[in-house]
Design a protein that fits this description.
It is a single chain. By secondary structure, this protein is an alpha+beta fold. Helices cover 38% and strands 13% of the residues. The chain has helices at residues 4-16, 46-49, 55-64; strands at 35-38, 41-45. A two-stranded antiparallel ribbon has the order 1-2.
């Protein structure tokens, strides 16, 4: 079963950008890592901050990489 915060953040990301790939490690041992990357650029790391991102942090990260602009 996925961590509730993983599901919360995944749903936020999907509501912002529908054509994203979200994956998780289902195999033991799991490290507890949670990272958001865009084009191989890390925009959030749970390891660095010790917590999951807020909705505002996700939106700011996406805005930095022009995610809201059409291709």
């Amino acid at each position: 079963k996925l961590h509730p915060e993983f599901e919360r953040v995944s749903n936020i990301i999907k509501s912002i950008k529908t054509d994203v790939e979200i994956s998780s490690n289902q195999n033991s041992p799991r490290s507890g890592a949670f990272e958001v990357s865009i084009d191989d650029k890390l925009i959030f790391s749970k390891f660095q901050l010790g917590r999951f991102p807020t909705e505002d942090e996700i939106k700011v990260g996406f805005n930095q990489y022009d995610i809201f602009k059409p291709p």
